[in-house]
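User: Hey, my collaborator sent me this sequence without any context and asked if I could get a structure. I don't really work with proteins. Can you help?
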Amino acid sequence: MEGSNHSLVSEFVFLGLTNSWHIQLLLFLFSSMFYVASITGNSFIVLTVTFDCHLHSPMYFLLANLSFIDLGVSSVSSPKMIYDLFRQHKVISFRGCITQMFCMHAVSGVEMVLLIAMAFDRYVAICKPLHYLTIMSPRMCLFFLVAAWVVGLTHSLVQIAFVVNLPFCGPNVLDSFYCDLPRFIKLACIDTYQLEFMVTANSGFLSVGVFFLLIISYIVIIVSVQKHSSGGSSKALSTLSAHISVVVLFFGPLIFFYTWPSPSTHLDKFLAIFDAVVTPFLNPVIYTLRNQEMKEMAMKRVCRQLVSYGKSS
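Assistant: No problem. I've predicted the 3D structure and written it out in structure-token form, which is a compact way to encode the shape of the chain:
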């Protein structure tokens, strides 16, 4: 964070999303609704998996951790975006901008590894069912969780280490509603071509590589399900479709941000809003609607427990 001492810029100004009061009002209502729904839905999944002993399995352990990460994803930029909608002067401090970028890349890195772990979990459950509990042991689940945080924090630290000491002499205007590395780097007073390439290689190629790895792994699982079709095949395919939907929702905007050569500003902002506000809300919706056990049994049990607790108190 000492990089701010070598810069003439102490804060950055966001241009925001729009200057139209009516559109700002619609965005405020839209973003607030989805943000509250995202926090509520993901919190409910975490609580349901934590307190329902019937859900203490590897799949739900990973799902609860994914929901916990989605709480972070939805809270990195959404609250400030909502707060700034009706402000004329939308600013963020140098340290605040660095912190926002660090948190954004950290939680994204963690979510990438969790999605890989969930794909591996489904592969073992469908292709090696007799060895499922042996392979997906509590130790293996803990390994995936620790690996996710190590990869996420390392991925974020590597990128921030290269940009935190950049000199900024002006201008300090970001045509966005949050701090992101590509736009942040372009404001530096030095030639940043190599840094921009590093960001593209680190975030862009990593996103594309992991995305195709996951898609290929799910294709292999689907082919295996079709070969060994049984009564449970429809349930397996339903679960896999939920996983694939989440993967596409998560990686789609990331690939666009870091690999598209000259993105449209309006499309960039639309995808940024979708990624920050809508995707963390859709994840719990997709998983709960596609999972009968979660939807019909676990949530009802937790609701009954909460109601009984409220009456007793």
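In plain terms: The longest helix spans residues 193-227. You can pass these tokens on to your collaborator as they are.
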